[in-house]
Design a protein that fits this description.
315 residues, 2 domains
Length: 315
């Protein structure tokens, strides 16, 4: 009887522990989801903030980022010098020891570069990626200036008919150039689909105990580019349609046949461009490739440090 009571108690305790473990796992999972959502939300807020910045604020931020990169490069250079001094002070006794020393130095340098990358380079690469997804303050001012002119009847009434086609073409070419610089693809022939996220180059580097922060940064920038391909398709088409409406041939022909129709067509096409620009901004905010790339790069580099850094293993 006592044995049966003890077994029942053990089963009850086991079930309680199992339920507690499941609850803890669920709680951890929920907390992780919240952390992920919060980090993605932070990126969204930063995109919105960058759209509201002045050119001066952007230049100041870029200068600050360069300072962080210079700081990181200086620390890496100092670490390499320290390795060289140690090598001179403690020279290898034979070829095998020299080879082992070289391998260990490469690993330690790679570990140091990874830690510096996470601290000083990666945050700036994320900022640069997010900033690349929106028009710069100067470019946004140019787009707004074009809209102000072409949607204003007073502007149209002041233009000489002989010069109007050239002015329209100038505005159109400027808008196409700015859009192409934003989207970073040929708006006349947009890519069909973005390439999937790949960490193969990063993993290959780390497997060889080598690390290049610029190569890692390309993964972040590729993610930003993939978002722009997804979000920018309709914007690219709208700008190309506007370019056709405002071409020299189309404008000259419309001026001779129906000047009012030309004005109406240009304004309608530009309104579509403006609407697609707003839509692009909204879509970019909802895409998560930059966040996913950041998370993947951090995961890969953090695992590398855990596997290879003795001080990390001891801690």
């Amino acid at each position: 009887m006592q044995q049966r009571t003890q077994q029942t108690h053990q089963r009850s305790e086991s079930m309680r522990l199992q339920q507690f473990s499941q609850a803890q796992s669920l709680n951890n999972y929920v907390q992780q989801l919240r952390r992920n959502a919060n980090q993605q939300e932070i990126l969204v807020h930063r995109r919105v903030m960058y759209r509201q910045w002045s050119q001066e604020e952007l230049v100041k931020d870029q200068a600050s980022r360069q300072q962080e990169e210079q700081k990181g490069n200086a620390q890496i250079a100092a670490f390499i010098e320290q390795q060289q001094r140690k090598r001179l002070e403690q020279p290898a006794q034979d070829a095998q020891q020299a080879s082992e020393q070289q391998q260990e130095e490469a690993k330690q340098l790679s570990l140091f570069k990874v830690k510096i990358y996470q601290e000083l380079f990666l945050p700036g690469q994320i900022d640069a990626a997010l900033q690349s997804q929106t028009l710069s303050p100067k470019s946004r001012e140019q787009v707004q200036s074009i809209s102000k002119d072409l949607l204003d009847n007073t502007w149209w009434s002041k233009q000489d008919a002989g010069q109007l086609p050239g002015l329209l073409a100038t505005h159109s070419n400027t808008l196409a150039t700015l859009t192409g610089e934003l989207l970073e693809f040929d708006i006349a022939s947009p890519p069909a689909a973005p390439s999937p996220l790949s960490l193969s180059s990063l993993n290959e580097m780390l497997a060889k105990n080598s690390f290049d922060q610029l190569a890692a940064g390309k993964i972040i920038q590729s993610a930003a580019q993939a978002d722009k391909i997804t979000a920018g398709q309709r914007l690219a088409k709208a700008v190309m349609d506007f370019k056709r409406v405002t071409s020299n041939d189309a404008a000259n022909q419309a001026l001779h046949s129906d000047p009012k129709k030309l004005r109406s067509s240009v304004k309608e096409s530009l309104r579509i461009v403006n609407a697609e620009m707003v839509r692009y901004d909204a879509l970019i905010n909802n895409l998560e490739r930059v966040y996913e790339a950041k998370k993947a790069v951090l995961h890969a580099t953090t695992n590398y440090v855990k596997m290879n850094d003795k001080s990390s293993q001891e801690g």
